[in-house]
Amino acid sequence: MSRWRDDAAPRRARPPQVAGALARPRLAQALTSARVLLVTATAGYGKTTTLATHLEALGAAAWLTLDPDDHDPRVLASGLALALSGLPGADELGVLHDQGAAPLSLARRAARLLEEQRATLVVDEAQHAAHGEAAAVLRALLGARVALLSRTPLDWPELTALELGGEARRLEAAELAFTPDELAALMQANRVQLTGPHLRAAHRLTEGWPIAARFLAQALRQGRISPGELDTLDPHAQGLGTLFSYLAREVLGPLDENLRVFLTRSSVFEDLSEGLLTQVLDEPNAGAFLAALAGGGTFLTRAGDTFRAHPLLRAWLRAQLSDDDAVLLARRGAAHYEHTGRPRRAVAAHLQGQQPMAAARLLALHGRTWLRAGRGRMVERALVRLPGECWAEWPALYTLLGDTHRAASRYPEALEAYRRAPHPDGPLGQVQVYLDTVQPALAGELLQDLRLREADPGVVDRMQAENALNAGQLERALQLDPALALSARYALRRGDLQRALLLARQAASGEVGERTAGNHREALLLDSFLSALLGEPHDALDRAAAGQAEGERLESPFVRALARTRQGHALLAAGHDPPAETAYRSALEEAQGIAPRLTVEAHMGLAYLEALAGQDGGHRPAALHAAGHSGDRYMCGLARFTAALGTVHRLQRRTEAPDPATLQTLHAQLDEAAAEFLACGDTFGQDAVQLARFAAGVGPALPALLAAHRAPFLLSRPSLLAPARRRAGRARVLSALRVAARREQLPWTLQGIEAALGYPSGVPDSHPGHEVQVQLLGQLSLRVAGHEVREWGRAKARDLLTLLAVTPGGLARDAAQEALFPDSEPGVGERNLRVTLHALGALLEAGAPSGFFLDRGEWLRLRPGPDLQVDLHGAEALLAQPPGTPGRSERLLRLPSSVTDSVLEAVQAAAARYASALPPALAAEGAAALAAGQALLAETLADHALRLDPAEESAARVLMRARYQLGVAAGVHRAYTACCGALGSLGLTPLPETVALYRALTSLAP
Question: What is the pLDDT of residue 254?
Answer without folding.
Answer: 64
